[in-house]
Each structure stands twice: as C-alpha cells, then as structure tokens.
Amino acid sequence: MKRRIEYCEKQVDLITQNPAPEDAKREQLDIIEREIDAVIGEVYELAKFTRLNFTAFMKIVKKHDKNAPFVLKPMFAEQLNSRPFFKENFDELLLELSRLYNIVRNGGVDVDGSKDPQSGNGQNFVRQTTKYWVHPDNVMELKLYILKYLPVLIYRTKGATKPPNPAITSIYFDNDKLDLYQGRLEKSEGAEAIRLRWYGDMDSTEIFVERKTHHEDWTGEKSVKERFSIKEKYVNDYLSGEYTLDSKIERLREEGKKSEQDLHDMETLSREVLESVKTKHLEPVVRSFYNRTAFQIPGDARVRISLDTELTMVREDSFDGKPRAGNNWRRTDIGVDYPFSQLPEQDVCRFPYAILEVKLQTQSGVEPPQWVLDLIDSHLVEAVPKFSKFIHGTSVLLEDRVDVLPFWFSQMDRDIRKPATKGIGISRANSPRGSFVGMDNAGRHRGGRTNSATPSQSSLQYQNDIEVIVESEPGEHSSQNEGTVTQYSHAYGGEPSEETALLGRRNYQNSSESWLQKINPFAKPDSQRERQPGRVTFTTRDDQPNKRIAVPVR
Prior knowledge:
Layout: H1 2-17, H2 22-67, H3 73-82, H4 84-87, H5 90-105, E1 125-134, H6 139-146, E2 152-156, E3 167-174, H7 179-186, E4 192-199, E5 206-213, E6 224-231, H8 235-239, H9 246-255, H10 260-279, E7 283-297, E8 300-315, E9 348-350, E10 354-363, H11 370-376, E11 382-383, H12 389-397, E12 404-405, E13 438-439, E14 445-446, E15 468-471, E16 479-481, H13 498-502, H14 515-519, E17 535-541, E18 544-553
Parallel strand pairs: 2-15, 12-18
Antiparallel strand pairs: 1-10, 1-11, 2-7, 3-4, 3-7, 4-5, 5-6, 6-16, 7-8, 8-9, 8-10, 13-14, 17-18
Helix pairs in contact: 1-2, 1-5, 2-3, 2-5, 9-10
C-alpha cells in the first residue's frame, strides 16, 4: 500500500508537469482518485484485520489464564506489541492519503496551507456544534470516510520540520464542593469552566489559560471561550498571584502584534480568571488527555470536524488527602504516556469511545453538504449533544462527591454499534491501475500499461511533505463563540424511547425539517424558539437511587 501511494504521488507529479489539455489531466486525476479509493478500502480492511487478530489473541490468552495455574497475558501482550504487524501506524497512511485526495480534488494543485483555518467567519451565519461517540471498531472507517471530503488539518509552528504531537492535555479546576461542575452540568447562567491546556509533549513551554462561560439564550449573549497563553515556568506564580502579564502585554504592544483591544481583553481575562481561582478556592481537579485528528479546508469554516481518540481522564485533586499534584499546578508522575498504566485504577478513567465534534457554519437558508448529513445519520456515530470531558471525568472519578450525574450516563449502559448504513462507510473498490496512462509534452496520450513503481528503500517520509499546513499555534485566536442553538431532551432507564432511537438515525429524504433539526432532532426551529431561561429537570435511575440525573429540556 505504501508503494501504491508513492506511485500515485509520482503519477500526480507527471500529470501536473505536462502541458496537456485540462480535460485530459482531469481524466487522469479521476483515475488516480479511484486508485486512492481502492487503497483506502484496503487500509480499512487491514486495520480491521489487525484489530480483530489482536483482540482474538488477548481473548484466547485470557481464557487460558482463567483455567491454568500460570499467567500468559503479560508476556503475550508484550510480544504482540513488539511485532511489526501490530505496531503499524495507520495514521501515517491516512495523512498521505489525505494529502493525495486534497491535491486531486484541486486539479493537481496543493491547497494553500498559509490560510488561516478560521478565516471566512462572518456574522450572518447559522452555527451548530454537535458531539458524537464513535465506537473503536468504527474509528478508522470514520477517518477514511471523512478524508474523502475534507483534508487532515495540521497545525505547525513556523520552522517546524515534522507534524506536531497530536496529544492535547487539559487541567480542569474546581473546588471541593464542585461548584463549577454543578454550574456547567445544570447550565446555570454565567457558569464557568476554567482549564489550563497544552499541546504535544510535557516539554511544551506554552500553556493556554482558558475560560468557558455559559450564557442562556434569553440573555441575548453567546456562550464564549476565551484564552491567553503563559509560559509554563510562570504558571504556579500566576495562580498564586505573584506573576502578572504586565511585562508580556507591554512587549506585545511594542512589537505591534496585538491591537489595544486585544491587549485589554488579555489583561482583563487574566485578572478575572485569577479572581475566580482565589474567591472560589479553585484547584486542579481533573485532567483530560486525548489525541486529536482535525479535518478542515483552510480558510473555509463551513465544515470543521475533529476526532478525539484515546480519551482519558485522570484525578488531579487532593480531596482525599493524597497530594497528587502537591504544590504544583499539575501532577508530575505522568506525562502523555497513554494508557497511563502506572496509575492506580481509582485515579484514571479510560473512556471507551472516541469523540467526534462536527461544527457547521452556513449562511441562513443554506444546508450543509449532503455527505455531512449522511454521516451523522449513519451507523458510524452516536449523537450525544453537549457531551463534556470535564463533566464526565468529574462524575466518574469523584462520584462520591457528586449528587447529579450527566444525562449521557444512560447511553453508557448499551452497545452503541448499529447495523451498517447502506452507502455509508468504506468498502473495497477495484483498482484502476491498468488505466494509468502517460502524457507527452505535446499532450498526446501514450497507450499501454504502466509498470509498477519501484519499491521504496525506506518508509514514507511523510513528515517533510504532508497535508495542509497552518502556520500558527493551535487555537491562536483568543476568543471563539460557541453558540447554544441546540436544545435537547433524552429518555432514561430501560429501552430507549422512540425519540431516543431516532437520534442520529432518521431518514430525511422526504423531510421538510431544517438542517438544524437534521443535526439534532430535538432542536427547536429558530422561528419557534422563545427567549426564555433554559431549564434542567432531574430524574433518577433504579441502580443509583441516591443520584440525580440532569436532563436539559426545551
């Protein structure tokens, strides 16, 4: 497959370098695209085969260990993980395929990677964000399906020669009464979430201080996410009030890199976050870790998709007397070494699913692409509106301290896998390699079958030439609106209700509903939506009668 990808790259280069008629080039690029489709189908099948084999080995050994006086699982796990067959990183192939798709889609020209991924944002748009769970069995198929329509977006700092580590780690703050957890769960007006985030390895020197503030529709304001960056070595001093951003703000003013309004907002945000930390007695409570794959066309914010895998939540608090972080702002006994096997089980929650987030931005009256609607209505995803890593991690790791649980706990009790949706997903396609033809400088076609490419003597050096490169820090902008258009309800306990069963699985072929309702069947159309405070009702479950479950309603 690697050789076939290399061969496609060479063919694309030949096509673009020859002055043939555009129609002839397009015809050849269509053949290349069909070959990429064929490779994608085989990558999916190989990834699935690898996963099934590894699972089968583990189950066989587990059965042995239950019925034998000696244990084999640790030894077998180490042996399997060291084998090339199980060590293959399919994400590398995915990046190469994404780059090829992107070039072929653009007529043999690589897209301009210098564009700001957030550019193109305007005011007269309908924005909608919805989250989904993805079963591990469907993760690779989902990635391969999306990259057929959107390129993998790589954030890279200037001067970098390789893709950044996809890990994203956040430290969420709260107090021993979990006031921030309660406010975010109940969607109280003005509820805050405060976190410190970094990208990549533990040696990252830039830490982002972020605050999310929830606003109800009746206030006329949008929920907002704000952030500023600070050097890691200053974080503890900042949280204790011994360090301010005055010197940084003055330097930025002298360099002219920020407007006066931006500098004012930065100073205000840093002061307000510190005030919340002090007055609410906030401290590190939960860490979230995941690896993110982002899909987006740079400069086009109409469809933005992110997929977070290996999601893990870890305790950071000292509520039980254990100084996990000590006097530091984060614990130092772990890094980004998933699955964090060195931690005691009561300190870690490994989430069983990947998290897909779909952000749509369309002009009023314009529907999003059909492939997006098909995706969210397919077997690959399970809709979970308003899922929160902070809320889930806190409710699981600090269950003895919470009285209210999030609504999606009922969905954790059942298998989210569904029968395959016809026409959606990845299937093997016939390779058109026999149709590859060359073009001479005069633009004439030369018939005949092209010989197979020469095998590469080394693995693909994808790090030096990959996909869409954005010359900026991840999330460079200090403020990002997160609209609260979506409202929803959910059923709990026993079999899912008819409404719940319809979530994400409806047929819209003959539907007159707006695309907002297609994304979320329970969203009220704008024309029917009243400006009134949001409400949360509470219910209980038979297996946890002492816990309430927060259910957002319209």
